[in-house]
Amino acid sequence: MILAGFAMQATAQSFQSGDLLYSVIGSNPPRVSLDGHVDGTAAQGPLHIPDTVEYQGKSYAVAEITARAFYDCRYLSGDLVIPSTVKRIGKRAFCLTLMSTLTLPNSVIEIDREAFRSTRFSGTLVIPNGLERLDSGVFWDSPGFTGDLVIPESVTYVGDSAFAGCSGFDGQLIIEGMVQSIGKSAFHGCSNLTGDLLIPESVVDVGAGAFYKCSGFNGILSLPTQLTEIHERCFDECSGFAGSLVIPESVTTIEDYAFMRCGFSGELVIPNNVVSIGLGAFAQCSGITDLVLGGNVERMEYLAFSNLTGLQSIKINVETPPELHSLTFANVPRDIPVYIPCNTIELYQNADHWSEFTNFIEDCSLVVDEEGSVEVRVYPNPASDFVTIEGIEAVEMQVFNAVGQLVETVHHTNQIAVSGWAKGVYVVKIMGNDGFVCTKRIAVVG
């Protein structure tokens, strides 16, 4: 009898108003969840979600949309406006629903996995300012959105495939400064996004294939200085990138196809902490002109630097020749200068596959630090007035802009005035009095 009483009470808490189904989820304040349409997947016509609904003489705020509430409702039409009372949208709530534009209010603080997967919305997408997570597949395969894609500052996590297949965005991707993790394939196939890709300093992990086939970017790529791994296919086929690629000193691993077919130009410096470079990691990056290998590189895999048709020189800060595959440098001329540390020419001339190169030049400035790297710090960063270099006695510093042009050269100082520079990201090449060379990225905020 007690169980039957509970069942009757639960049934009494679910009700219909108009064509929509609701359940009471709270009484103080009075709140309901929206559970779906009376016609299920056969529902047709416009969908109007009210902000409040009357039940048994009391007004209830519509606070949640439950999981699969409108899943596969292919015959609904018109705009979808989520009222400002809604805080949560459940898993696959509108998955496969075909409507027009989408309006999400700032009241929404949670959108569960695949909530809008394979929808066909049009127009701009405005992500609520209070949202903390963009869960896996939340807008997966929703190609109708246009304009900029702005990830607001409240978001700390962008999940796997969150925007995969959203090929309609044709503006900038703006990731504001609180995101800590970007999941696997998060923006895979967002091929029309343009401008710079500035990944904020808060990010510590970018998943495999996160920006795979994002070919539309036509500005610089700025990577956060906390990043330790460049995962498989992370930026593969980002062919529109301009300027040089600056890999943070913190990076230890560059995985397979990480930057394959990217459009970078100028010098590429592999940081001192990198030990191995994966299969095809920089293959077909034909704009790279000079390659500098850091002091801990031990192995470079099959096709890692293949088809670098613009490559003019290689500098190696490693006394023991790194292990190569026979096709690591496939279709790279073997007569380009290869600068190596003093007293290592016989090692390189007799090492497997290095022996194919014919123009080794011993350069005594290529000295490996005993610890494998020198701790060099640049602050403040971002900067508006000047920056200070700490950890090295600089003999010369060269500053390059986002497209690889030399902006300024300074000598015998550890400070650079930036107050007259245009807003943007710059690369500083620092040469110490002991022959050590490193590069640092600085952001100028004007």
Summarize the model shown.
By secondary structure, the protein is mainly beta. It has helices spanning 2-12, 345-350, and strands at 14-17, 20-27, 30-37, 45-46, 52-55, 58-65, 76-77, 80-81, 88-89, 102-103, 110-111, 133-134, 149-151, 157-158, 173-175, 181-182, 197-198, 205-206, 221-222, 229-230, 253-254, 266-270, 276-277, 288-293, 299-300, 313-316, 323-324, 338-340, 360-362, 377-379, 386-390, 394-400, 406-411, 415-417, 424-432, 437-444.
Structure description:
This protein has 446 residues and is mainly beta. It has a domain at 378-444: Immunoglobulin-like (Sandwich). The termini are far apart. It is elongated. The chain has helices at residues 2-12, 345-350, and strands at residues 14-17, 20-27, 30-37, 45-46, 52-55, 58-65, 76-77, 80-81, 88-89, 102-103, 110-111, 133-134, 149-151, 157-158, 173-175, 181-182, 197-198, 205-206, 221-222, 229-230, 253-254, 266-270, 276-277, 288-293, 299-300, 313-316, 323-324, 338-340, 360-362, 377-379, 386-390, 394-400, 406-411, 415-417, 424-432, 437-444. A hairpin with a 2-residue loop joins strand 2 (20-27) and strand 3. Strands 1, 2, 3, 5, 6, 9 and 11 form a 7-stranded mixed beta sheet that branches. It has a 5-stranded parallel beta sheet with strand order 20-21-23-25-27, with no helix packed on it.
Beta-strand proportion: 25-35%
Name the shape in a single word: elongated
What kind of sheet is the major sheet?
A: 7 strands, mixed
Provide mean pLDDT, rounded: 90
Quote the CATH topology of the domain at 378-444.
Immunoglobulin-like
Low-confidence stretches: 1-12, 367-373
Distance between the termini: 73 Å
Radius of gyration: 27 Å
Helix count, per DSSP? 2
Indicate the percent of residues in helices.
Answer: under 10%
In the CATH hierarchy, what is the class of the domain at 378-444? Mainly Beta
- Which structural category do the helix and sheet elements fall into? mainly beta
Under the CATH scheme, which architecture of the domain at 378-444 would be assigned?
A: Sandwich
The total beta strand count reads 36
